[in-house]
Amino acid sequence: MSLKSNACILFNKTYVQITNKLETGEDLTLHCKSKDDDLGEHVLHKDESYNFSFCRNVFGETLYFCSFEWSGKVHRFDIFDESRDGCDHCNWRITLSAPCRDKCYKYD
């Protein structure tokens, strides 16, 4: 018998929200994953959001990375990097030029 819990052991659960804010109004196709979890591909219309949550690992190395596609081009970005992000609720806006939260970052 195994028990699976939604509770995190040492840290609060981290919530990530990704919102399509492409200025052209195009659909945004995103695909996010970590070393252990593939969250699949999702299509967001303008102003729609995709949400996921996770428990951080005890070594402080949690990393989720995403690809974002629009207009036939693919952009990549580490949507949660524990060495950079200290948020429990990380709300990202995906724009043509950059992924933005409190400040904007460059695509990889």
Automatic annotation (TrEMBL):
Q: Which UniProt keywords apply?
A: Secreted, Self-incompatibility, Signal
What is a biological process (GO) this protein takes part in? rejection of self pollen
> Please, which domain of life does this record's source organism belong to?
Eukaryota
Q: Which residues form a coiled coil?
A: none
User: Subcellular location, in the record's words?
Assistant: Secreted
Main subcellular location: secreted
UniProt-listed Pfam families: Self-incomp_S1
Gene Ontology cellular component terms for the protein in this record:
extracellular region
Q: Which family does it belong to?
A: Belongs to the plant self-incompatibility (S1) protein family.
Per its record, how is this protein called by name? S-protein homolog
